[in-house]
């Protein structure tokens, strides 16, 4: 009998291994650590949202919905964006419901990036951006945000633009640094891109987590950006249901048409009862309007506790992350410090070096404060030993 064998396969993503998020979460479980590494809440969503989904199931909304998403949810997204940003996206031709923001981003990339195209990413950046570009056959052009402040450096972005640039991916509020782009930042980007055909993929999943009176500056607010942007957001982040994996994309009709060509074949559509539940729940704007204050209180609780340690607090302007400088605490590199912290003190964090292609180590780690108050207090009690 001939021996069976598995054919050798050249990896499409040879540089991708087990992510730091998986490693740190597994280590946290092994050591009984408080997991402030991976970015998801440890508290429940509003019971009314669960009830709305249950009602949708009982009412028979359990078969395929339209490919682009159910009309009531697309209309709710359009109405919300118009109310917040002053621009209406046509729910029929310009809003698409997606299987989370991560699927939305790769679908946008696959829709517009061809082999040889360049795509600018601003490091540190979310870990899916680079593999998405590589899967599309594009060339990644890395531009660092300013070390220390994580502000966009428009001179460096301008220098990175070339005739081959197809798109730039931006993210505000920013993961991992918790910085928020200002109106002036968005105007600068709009002016820089005006003479080009460069597209924008604007990752705005933390849009409702902005603090200290700031406003989220969506690409939707700037006509020159709105006309060239895929605007991506997440119901999971906004409504504390990250495991549901439901998001949306708003884009001009010609871009949406190309987006949906890919979307219909890599996802087709998104689960029906949750779409109906979300559409019903969005009739009340209070949950997302109250979100900044909800997370600012958690941020302030966490920052007050950290201030008693030798960790140096960096600003947290938005998102649900807090970065700290570890220079006064340890000589270890970021990644080794996070391993030590998990094993020794029982608190898991993520090294910022994981968000850079070259592993740039600036002695900064990231905590997630989207946790119950008692979870944060337990973590702070342990971190007080630093």
Description:
This protein is of the alpha/beta class. The chain has two domains: 20-39 and 289-383, Aspartate Aminotransferase, domain 1, CATH 3.90.1150.10; 47-284, 3-Layer(aba) Sandwich (Aspartate Aminotransferase, domain 2), CATH 3.40.640.10. Helices cover 40% and strands 15% of the residues. The strands form three sheets. The protein has a seven-stranded mixed beta sheet, sandwiched between helices. Strands 9-10-13-12 form a four-stranded antiparallel beta sheet. A two-stranded parallel sheet has the order 1-11. The radius of gyration is 21 Å and the shape is globular.
Can you describe this structure in just a few lines?
This protein is 40% helix and 15% strand. The chain is an alpha/beta fold.
Question: What secondary-structure arrangement, pairings included, does this model have?
Answer:
Layout lengths: L19 H12 L2 E2 L11 H12 L12 H15 L9 E4 L1 H13 L5 E6 L5 H7 L3 E6 L9 H7 L4 E7 L11 H11 L5 E5 L19 H4 L2 E6 H5 L7 E4 L2 H14 L5 H10 L4 H4 L1 H16 L5 E2 L7 E5 L8 H12 L1 E2 L1 E2 L12 E5 L4 H11 L3
Parallel strand pairs: 1-11, 3-4, 3-5, 5-6, 6-7
Antiparallel strand pairs: 2-8, 7-8, 9-10, 10-13, 12-13
Helix pairs in contact: 1-14, 2-11, 3-11, 4-5, 4-10, 13-15
């Amino acid at each position: 009998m001939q021996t069976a064998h598995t054919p050798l396969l050249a990896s499409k993503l040879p540089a991708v291994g087990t992510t730091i998020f998986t490693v740190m979460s597994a280590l946290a479980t092994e050591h009984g650590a408080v997991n402030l590494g991976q970015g998801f809440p440890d508290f429940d969503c509003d019971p009314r949202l669960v009830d709305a989904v249950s009602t949708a199931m009982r009412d028979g909304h359990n078969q395929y919905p339209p490919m682009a998403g159910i009309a009531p949810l697309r209309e709710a997204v359009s109405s919300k964006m118009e109310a917040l940003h002053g621009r209406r996206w046509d729910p029929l031709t310009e809003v698409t419901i997606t299987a989370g923001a991560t699927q939305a981003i790769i679908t946008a990339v696959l829709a517009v990036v061809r082999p040889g195209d360049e795509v600018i990413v601003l490091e540190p950046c979310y870990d899916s951006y680079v593999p998405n570009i590589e899967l599309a056959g594009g060339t990644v052009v890395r531009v660092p945000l300013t070390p220390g402040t994580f502000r966009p450096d428009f001179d460096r972005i301008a220098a990175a633009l070339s005739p081959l640039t197809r798109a730039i991916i931006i993210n505000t509020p920013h993961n991992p640094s918790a910085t928020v782009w200002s109106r002036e930042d968005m105007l600068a980007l709009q002016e820089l891109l005006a003479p080009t055909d460069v597209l924008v993929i604007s990752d705005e999943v933390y849009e409702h987590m902005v603090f200290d009176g700031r406003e989220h500056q969506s690409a939707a607010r700037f006509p020159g950006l709105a006309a060239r942007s895929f605007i991506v957001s997440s119901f999971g982040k906004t409504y504390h249901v990250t495991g549901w994996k439901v998001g949306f994309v708003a884009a001009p009709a010609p871009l949406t048409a190309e987006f949906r060509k890919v979307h219909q074949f890599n996802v087709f559509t998104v689960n029906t009862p949750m779409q109906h539940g979300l559409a019903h729940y969005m009739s009340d704007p209070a949950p997302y309007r109250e979100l900044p204050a909800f997370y600012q209180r958690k941020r302030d609780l966490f920052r007050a506790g950290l201030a008693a340690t030798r960790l140096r607090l960096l600003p947290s302007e938005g998102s649900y992350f807090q970065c700290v400088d570890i220079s006064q605490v340890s000589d270890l590199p970021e990644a080794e410090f996070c391993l030590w912290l998990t094993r020794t003190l029982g608190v898991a964090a993520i090294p910022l070096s994981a968000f850079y292609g070259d592993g740039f180590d600036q002695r900064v780690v990231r905590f997630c404060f989207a946790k119950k108050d008692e979870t944060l207090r337990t973590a702070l009690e342990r971190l007080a030993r630093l």
